Amino acid sequence: MNKKDIELLSPAGNLEKLKIAFAYGADAVYGGVSHFSLRIRAGKEFTFESFKEGIDYAHARDKKVYATINGFPFNSQIELLKKHIIKMAELEPDAFIVAAPGVVRLCREIAPQIPIHLSTQANVLNYLDAQVFWDMGVRRIIAAREISLKDVKEIKKHLPDMEIEIFVHGSMCFAYSGRCLVSAVQMGRVPNRGSCANDCRFEYTLYAANEDHSTLFRLEEEPGVGTYIFNSKDMNLASHMQEILDSGAVDSVKIEGRTKSPYYAAVTAHAYREAIDDYFDNKFDANKYQKELYTTKNRGFTDAYLIHRPFDKNDTQNHEYALSKGSYEVSGLVAEDEEHFYCKYKTYPGDEIEIFAPIGAQIEECDNEIGKIYKKDDDKFYIVFNKILTDTNKELESVHSGNTNKIQLPSKLPYLTMLRIENEEETVNN
């Protein structure tokens, strides 16, 4: 296996995140419009026009875009689904991601020129199921999140021409490969049709009942244990990338998170790009990638099931909080003109702000009236503003996220570079 044989696949919740994922190292992205996708909220960020713009943007850079049509339709939706497949095929994505066998067949009939990738929702864990989908025309399976690396290798042994994609990072569902109905029961929002309400992330109070005499009493938890009883930690396999790549059985490593922030899209793509490149350059350093990944919002991390079976351990659930803020906050995003940034948090004169730049970015040191850019701490770059000036030269005492003015930089920085500062708060329950 060489570097070109392994694909880094990132989420693209909207056009900006698509561009960020590519800038920070992704080879391909996945996303779609809201219809028949399992991420309706993310899909609404894309129109057919902007999704086509994203596909053209990717193809101009020799990158790929996979379109999600991975919902589970009802009979009443079949005719609408047929029209949707026709319209999505016209955008010329590099593949459709599909979950339901009937939709696989429909896509093959309507748009045979578009390759089919089988969604993780199809729960493929073995070569028998993989063979069935191969016979139907599927050329890549996105294996169930519960699969082991041993089973991935076994599938590849039986079906060497079948591409295998695995999740390596992002949110985990307490239900089997996301096939959940909790939010449908409680909120009327059906996860398998793209409108999950994330009920598994809520804090619950536990009660016990006696059916003989209708006694109901609240169960008291130990202090600090909490009641986030369904709340899985997030998958993080960066430390296992050597084993994954050594296997020779994995064609694509996938990051979850179309509804996550642009910063998440940047950091995860950057960290896994470095992990892959460092593997092939014989300088793999798991601690370096983990340090970056912990700067993102997370629920705590687990290595899930790829290396260890679920019954081998007891550390996959986070009972204490719903979501950690991560150790860094994005204070700014560099505009396309590369001379200004948009404030995303808050910026004050005199603050030392770290520069987090796209893969391969060239940064020049400078020191002038507006501020200075300099290098320290193992070649990291920082920026300090002497004054906050808008693009119309209006001076501000500070700038906060509600301000939509472009703010001048002391020197050019690459488009989509992020300015980040350490968080003042550690966790938030939401």
Automatic annotation (TrEMBL):
<dbReference type="Pfam" id="PF01136">
    <property type="entry name" value="Peptidase_U32"/>
</dbReference>
<dbReference type="InterPro" id="IPR001539">
    <property type="entry name" value="Peptidase_U32"/>
</dbReference>
<protein>
    <submittedName>
        <fullName>Collagenase-like peptidase, U32 family</fullName>
    </submittedName>
</protein>
<keyword id="KW-0378">Hydrolase</keyword>
<keyword id="KW-0645">Protease</keyword>
<comment type="similarity">
    <text>Belongs to the peptidase U32 family.</text>
</comment>
<dbReference type="GO" id="GO:0006508">
    <property type="term" value="P:proteolysis"/>
</dbReference>
<dbReference type="InterPro" id="IPR051454">
    <property type="entry name" value="RNA/ubiquinone_mod_enzymes"/>
</dbReference>
<dbReference type="GO" id="GO:0008233">
    <property type="term" value="F:peptidase activity"/>
</dbReference>
